Each structure stands twice: as C-alpha cells, then as structure tokens.
Amino acid sequence: MDDALIAKLSAHWRFTATIWKESTGITSLPDVCIGLVAFDPETEIDRHVIFVRQPGLAGKASTEYIIDPAYWIDPSQHVRTDIKGFPISWHIGVTPMKREGN
Fold first, then answer.
1. End-to-end distance of the chain based on CA atoms, in angstroms?
2. Beta partners for 15?
3. How far apart are CA 68 and CA 59, in angstroms?
4. pLDDT in tens, the chain (102 residues)
5. DSSP state, 3?
6. CA 63, 69, 71, 75 torsion-angle sign
7. Residue 92 in contact with residue 22, Cβ under 8 Å?
C-alpha cells in the first residue's frame, strides 16, 4: 500500500496515519494499526490486517485482536484474539484526527 493513498483514505474518515514502521512483535504495535503480514515480491501482492489493542480499565488486562479479511481463511478466523506470534512485520499506526478548536 502506498503511504500517500493510506494518508488520503485515513483523512477521509478523519484519521491520521503514520508511515510504515518495522514491527518487533505484538508489544511494539500501537493500539490501532494496519499490519503487513505477507508480501510476495514476485506478484507484489500484500496481505494486511487491522490490529487493535483495547486497554483494560481499573487494572484489568488489555484486549488485543486482529481483523483479518483474507477470503481464503475460515470465516471464524476473520476476527481473532489468539494472536501470540502473529506475523505482523510492518505497521502503520492509526489515530483519530484532533477536532478543530481543541
């Protein structure tokens, strides 16, 4: 995915996106990001997922999950919480835009 295209799409929906950053594991990811999990240099086809970390409240553990829209995986795996070791190699952080006047 092209950085400029991601920035335009994000801005359209009132989000800000970072540039691609290398990941060193799930703990290195921001709370919401687009993750690159596979790239085939021969066909130049990428596979992307959405990673979400919802911080726990009042001492509770955070909830982390992946949204994976790949058509070839079982539909029960499109949203999953069993993500230990999930292979996100690069990511783009996504955050809401600040409202004007704030």
1. 31
2. 96
3. 29
4. 577 777 777 887 788 888 899 999 899 999 999 999 987 778 777 889 999 999 888 888 899 999 999 898 999 999 999 998 889 999 999 998 887 665
5. H
6. positive
7. no
pTM here?
Answer: 0.81
CB-based contact 80:68 (threshold 8 Å): yes
In terms of C-beta density within 10 A (0-12 exposed, 13-18 middle, 19 or more buried), how is residue 91 classed? buried
Vertex 14, ends 32 and 51: CA angle to 5°?
A: 15
Residue matched to tokens 């800000």: 16
Token readout for 3 is 């950085």
Tell me if 20 sits within 8 A of 77, measured CB to CB: no
